[in-house]
Amino acid sequence: MAYNNGTLYVIENCSDKIKIDLSLLSLNMSAMCESYERTSAKYISLCENAGFQFNSETKLNELQTILIFKK
């Protein structure tokens, strides 16, 4: 079933939005799930490739940013 009017909220540590070194978090992600910390531009690209349109972003705290997408 496809939904064409949904909202996707991505809450992440966007590496380009914070001043904290994320190398240890990336190392942990690499070891545990073969992934890494991404920039907000990378999340936007991934979501747009999946059919979502970037709507807005809000800084939640020192680490996390919420990226909001519409379908």
Descriptive notes:
The chain is α+β, with helices and mostly antiparallel strands and 71 residues long. The protein has one domain. It has 2 helices and 3 strands; from the N terminus they run E-H-H-E-E. The chain has a 3-stranded antiparallel β-sheet, covered by helices on one side. The radius of gyration is 13 Å and the shape is globular.
Summarize the structure.
Helix content is 30%, strand content 27%.
Number of helices: 2
Structural class by helix and strand composition = alpha+beta
Query: Radius of gyration from the CA trace?
Result: 13 Å
* Share of β-strand residues: 25-35%
Number of strand elements: 3
In total, the number of domains comes to: 1
Multimeric state of these chains?
single chain
What fraction, in percent, of the residue positions are helical?
Answer: 25-40%
Q: What is the N-to-C order of secondary-structure elements (H for helix, E for strand)?
A: EHHEE
Biggest sheet overview: 3 strands, antiparallel
Q: If you average the pLDDT, what whole number results?
A: 88
N- to C-terminal distance: 14 Å
Uncertain segments of ≥5 residues (pLDDT<50)?
none
InterPro entries: SAM-dependent_MTases_sf
